[in-house]
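User: Reviewer 2 asked us to show a designed sequence for the structure in our supplementary figure. I'm pasting the C-alpha cells here. Could you produce the per-position amino acids so we can include them in the response letter?
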C-alpha cells in the first residue's frame, strides 16, 4: 500500500503544480463593450455613450492602435498601452451624431504576430 502511494505522489504533485497556473490565452481577443472585434463584422453602439475596450493575449508592453475612417479620411486615432500581463482596459467615447465608419485595430498577439482587423461600426 505504501509503495503504491509513493508511486502516485509525484504524479499528483505534478498535476497540482501544473493546474495552479492559468494558461496563457491561445489567441488574442479585442472587445469593445463586450463585442468581439472580428474582420468585416458590423457593430452598433449608442450615440454619445462611453464604451470600454478590453483585450487579452496581446504582446506585453506593446500598443493597440485604433483608427476610425470615413470616406478615406482619418477621423480619430486611439492608442492603448498593453500592460505586462498582455491585457488592456480602456475607455472610448462615441460621437453624438449618427454615423457609419470603418475602423482598423492594429496589435501584436502574445506570440509576436501582427494583426490588423478591419470592421465597421455605426452609432444608433
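Assistant: Here is a per-position design you can include in the supplement:
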Amino acid at each position: 500500500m505504501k509503495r503504491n502511494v509513493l508511486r502516485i505522489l509525484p504524479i499528483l504533485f505534478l498535476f497540482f503544480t501544473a493546474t495552479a497556473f492559468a494558461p496563457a490565452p491561445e489567441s488574442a481577443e479585442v472587445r469593445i463593450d463586450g463585442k468581439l472585434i472580428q474582420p468585416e463584422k458590423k457593430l452598433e453602439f449608442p450615440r454619445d455613450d462611453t464604451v470600454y475596450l478590453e483585450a487579452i493575449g496581446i504582446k506585453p508592453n506593446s500598443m493597440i492602435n485604433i483608427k476610425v475612417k470615413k470616406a478615406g479620411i482619418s477621423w480619430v486615432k486611439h492608442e492603448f498601452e498593453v500592460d505586462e500581463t498582455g491585457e488592456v482596459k480602456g475607455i472610448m467615447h462615441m460621437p453624438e451624431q449618427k454615423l457609419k465608419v470603418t475602423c482598423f485595430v492594429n496589435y501584436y498577439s502574445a506570440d509576436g504576430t501582427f494583426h490588423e482587423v478591419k470592421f465597421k461600426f455605426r452609432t444608433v
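For the response letter, you might also mention the following. Residues 19-25 have pLDDT under 50 and may be disordered. The chain has one helix and nine strands.
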